[in-house]
Amino acid sequence: MTTAKASFSENKLPDGPKAPALFQLINWIAHPFEYLEECIDKYGDIFTMRLFGFPPLVFIANPQGIKQIFSADAKDFDVGRTNDLARPILGDRSIILMDGSHHKKERKLLMPPFHGEKVKSYAKYICKITEKVASHWEINKPFIARDVAQEITLKVIMETVFGFSEGEKCEQLRSLLADWLDITASPMRSSFIFLQFLQIYLGAWSPWGHFIRTQQQIYELLQAEIEDRRANPEKLGDDILSLMLEVTDEDGQSMSDEQLKDELITLLVAGHETTATSLAWAFYWLEKFPEVKEKLLREIDNLGENPNPIEISRLPYLTAVCQETLRLYPIVPIAFARIANQDMEIMGRFFASGTTFIPCIYLTHHREDLYPNSKQFKPERFLERQYTPYEFIPFGGGVRLCLGYALAMLEMKLVIASVVSKYNLELADNKPVKPMRRGGTLAPSNGVPLVLTGFR
């Protein structure tokens, strides 16, 4: 990253939509993918959006520019203070809202359970949970792919965070989380996140009141679990909550209950919601393109009977299916925004300190020079070419690379393989499925209805 020496006051932000800021925000909430495509077609791969309530946002869909941002020193950008939209959901003390040394320390604390041998240890458990959930499917009775995927991924993250995934406590928390996240499960209801003036408490049964009431119930369950473990040290294990309860800072201080609850809710929400949506898309594409499914089945069958889950996770075509799913409709269209802490040059342009940059995942994933026929579902492209961390970015990048990306990929691979190798599924209807905003993410508009037609 080079510091620009030109007069920054003379350098304007890149061109962008001229519509009123409120109109731009409505477009961003209602149909973000289409709006992004309109912008890149008209203004190129670096443009400025002006959304109501936000500073000007410089979107970048160029690998060169994204590399400059992702590879920059952490002190060059602030990220946490750009995530205020998440504050009502994740709390004031979430790692997503941190910057600098606080973020680095928190990330170091939370990383071990999501990487290396610890992640591999979840493999058999993921398969077991998937088989248990799938065992309840009935022949010719439709079900929603996203719902069952969410049940699986939530149980996996509960095991990771708390060390349990069954029982009354687990079921209470699972039910409340599902209800809470469904409150923002449409473009209209997602407006509560983007428009703070809608965050008004008008009684327990008003939309925002219901959101706050459900959130409070979740926090009460988390508080009870924290207090139980503090009072009963023998219950501490190798799960994330136990790890956080035992850690102290350089002054010997433990994490406060408030900090623990905010980090727990961050992990629970971010650790299952996105993976569940990715799985729903994967099942949609596999049923939409039977030739892809057949090729995948041949690869899995070649491992023989009862293959080791880790062997399954290393299958190249299975990996490519997951990558292409994440490429075509990324669950979040953008990586975390970055605010420049100094004057800088990106892609030959000069920007003043304070400029907010948005690395755009969706538009980068649909560059025709990188992904020819980008609207086509074609896993083979990931076998034919090795993409850089600035060309394929479903989990963001740099010091803000998604903490749980390794677990998410392992889950996707093992859930898909466990299901397609044992169950014959079909789409329950042929209606078009489009991405629809679900809070800060984008999910299949109908959740992908499937029907079990038989067994393999």
Structure description:
Helix 1 crosses helix 2 (32-43), helix 11 (207-231) crosses helix 13 (257-270) and helix 14 packs across helix 15 (290-301). The N and C termini lie far apart (55 Å). Strand 1 and strand 2 (57-60) form a beta hairpin. The chain has a single domain (8-455), classed as Cytochrome P450 (Cytochrome p450, Orthogonal Bundle), CATH 1.10.630. It has a 5-stranded mixed sheet with strand order 1-2-8-5-3, sandwiched between helices. The protein has a 3-stranded antiparallel sheet with strand order 4-12-9. Strands 6-7 form a two-stranded antiparallel ribbon. The chain is built from 20 helices and 12 strands. By secondary structure, the protein is an alpha+beta fold.
What's the helix and strand layout?
Blueprint lengths: L20 H10 L1 H12 L2 E4 L7 E4 L2 H8 L6 E2 L8 H4 L9 H11 L5 H5 L2 H12 L8 E2 H18 L5 H15 L4 H8 L12 H25 L8 H7 L10 H14 L2 H16 L1 H12 L7 H5 L2 H13 L9 E3 L3 E3 L2 E3 L4 E4 L1 H5 L15 H4 L20 H16 L2 E5 L7 E4 L2 E4 L4 E7 L1
Parallel strand pairs: 2-8
Antiparallel strand pairs: 1-2, 3-5, 4-12, 5-8, 6-7, 9-12, 10-11
